[in-house]
């Protein structure tokens, strides 16, 4: 499975991949941009030490040639930032401890550990000496003078002792980890033997192990009852195979080449007969503690079947027993009206650290269920056991039947564990005599999964993100947008490879033109769609057109116009009584506007399925939303044919979204935002208050992948338009969707125009979703068929959670840097230092932290830049907002602690701080008073409105949902990095992932400089107001520290009592991160300026599923 892409070659020469992680250093790792030339940095008096930026960091020992960037003349005003403090005098280098590269011990404890640098991917040097830092490649310590104030936000506290307790790993051939003697003595808890009964088919026995091999021991341990009334557990399994009959090997068997184990686990305890000729040994559960190990990679799990489960529906059983006592004829008549077999409805949840990794489907009324389900599960968890929790599905929630627990030690070496295991209840006793679960589990560590080691698009045979609903589509074009509009000449001209120039897109103008030129269809999905919004505001001939007028005009021309909008349950229009709704989405207002036109508006509530519990149905309907944002139209394909193009990203076509890279807060209130004021932070009078600036990411897809966006709309529309209740009596079914396969002038997917793969501007694109079978029509009805469509089984639902899959694949494949902009950043709660069980179990934060830790251990540079809002939209002191900020703080803390531990392991904690690898930023703006502006000095001084008017500042709201990896891969969509967006059963989301095969590290063996590179550089120009040469090497220590110093300077300007004009908007997120990775409030900035609210949040009572 993970070896499909080992030989991906481009002619004329193959790509060398000697190591597991990095690439061989090319002769010139950072070639200059084509046609580059010097850029003159203007002088701006409001920044001290302005002028050409200097770089006070240690120079690399063998620096690449300096190639200043060429940014052509433009009216965008750049400015220089104050340089960082000069480096301390050089001293003798610190010598690292090479024995601490690994994570966990996989060798025998008695054997002396010999450090072998060959076992760490591309780090293939026989010895290691500290040199000055290089811009990429090996991570080396700069010369640091003891006691110097070299890093920002330092803390003098001592290093955490716990960091040195990390277990070590040797990346040689996998062997089974040693078990502690007490575990050896106590874990021999069962014996499974074959009595050669041939009456029933049984699994073929595996070859016997050598007589000298010690017996491997397993146990099925108790797990506290995990009844979940709402059924809101998280699922991260990826089933990919389903067999019609069971073909497996031994019973209670471990497959491991270094240590082959016997299929029979012999003990001398009394045995209990088991069906099918097997005998099960009943022994007490072990009392000794197990070793906690980090499992980072994939688990390959099969859940085959269970036998002899107890009947948990005792109420129905009691009624059945009563019928047996009724006289014969009457008993037969009554029994004929009920199901004779009323018993447990079992399913199995796979859990680790309290997070649900996967779940089988429910089998009704069966005490001997057969699932035969396979899960390929990404894991980044630390725990001692993997739990298989057997539950009985009930009308309200579920009942705990029992648990099978597999120690992490038994799978850590890579061998397969499989067999029948006794199902134990919460007290550690068998839930029923003979109750067993048949399963297999195998752990594949990340370093053994070659699919993650060569970046994105490594060769022409790269097939995209595996295990997804939609495949990779080749030969398209993609336009990348920042903000709703970018005026001509506002951002710098960026030179790309092949002599091309990056073009800054105008998102809403392109959407306007696409709608205006549509001839057959216009399909729009949105969290909010407002008919009054004006898409074009800088062209007087078009500025008066509203979206509603434009759509009505097109529908009158015969174009099919369909709007699929989330139905806010708090907005209503009943008998003339109207409520706007808590979220002010204008859904009812938009529906009324189009009511008597040929534009069809379908308000789509977020509903749970009928088979969900009543509590789950209420939760889904009230808390969760339809969050997708797409515009799909037909466009000219030449020769009187039409093709499909689609816009997808984070921008809804509604109020408050129109903005430019300048992000004005006061100056546009009387012009482009005169009828579009939006700022939900304030309550009451907002006269003279700043608007909330809006930063977002969006994209346009032209090519085969646009048809997948269309398929998503069709599947959702057919589900939402399906008649319910009395509407079922209608003779005809909703036929609003056009059948494009019946329209010869519209090209279908197979005929969609494709860009030649030889075209260097071609994109390969893949569409991802977070959605379940309650929101789409077309998923298989039988859950056994879910693996064929790469869907995940929930308890009563099928789930497409490919957005989460795509993020994990991209992060694991990253080799140099990650740049994220997202509205939220909460996750991996299972690894927090407290509140581990709140359910924010998406892997993204933990995967980023482990990626950085992995690079630190192999002495390679890596950097992550994460841009989030200053606070979630709304009142920053409100209960819900404070809880989100609290979870965000916990997420940051977990990541920085993980990085600090990795630095301690390799002895680099004195040379580097965690912020040399990971930094969080937000955006803000401040406008000085111009001549003629009215002073607001008479405003009330102690209210958020008054303080904001006085200080003339406000955050820029980051609504983006995107990630750029290594300048070669981009993900843009509607999904936030939180549980709501990633789980698939909460908010419905859509995203696209794209790369240019001619602009990848694997292709160039150097930094790509295609459209994705241009997009990131354009975003950084917007945020920082300047472009510097080091920005072409985002992973370099020089770039990380330079951007951080700029962000700190911008925050100081934003938080200052003195009002001044800001041209750079990127602010260092206002928390202090010390050298031990502890995240604390920034001294002097514990609350948000003007509006209040604790920056690190607070633990206030609020509905958990609303805030994660």
TrEMBL record:
Keywords: Calcium, Hydrolase, Lipid degradation, Lipid metabolism, Metal-binding, Repeat. Its cofactor is Ca(2+). One of its GO terms (molecular function) is metal ion binding. It is an enzyme of class 3 (hydrolase). Residues 1-122, 138-224 are annotated as: Disordered. It catalyses: a 1,2-diacyl-sn-glycero-3-phosphocholine + H2O = a 1,2-diacyl-sn-glycero-3-phosphate + choline + H(+). Its EC number is 3.1.4.4. Pfam families: C2, PLD_C, PLDc. GO terms for biological process: lipid catabolic process. Residues 1-10, 37-49, 74-84, 103-119, 155-166 have a biased composition (Low complexity). CDD domains: C2_plant_PLD (cd04015). InterPro entries: C2_dom (IPR000008), C2_domain_sf (IPR035892), PLipase_D/transphosphatidylase (IPR001736), PLipase_D_C (IPR024632), PLipase_D_fam (IPR015679). It comes from the Eukaryota. Residues 11-36, 50-66, 204-213 have a biased composition (Pro residues). Residues 622-657, 954-981 form the PLD phosphodiesterase domain. Belongs to the phospholipase D family. C2-PLD subfamily. This is Phospholipase D alpha 1. It comes from Penstemon smallii.
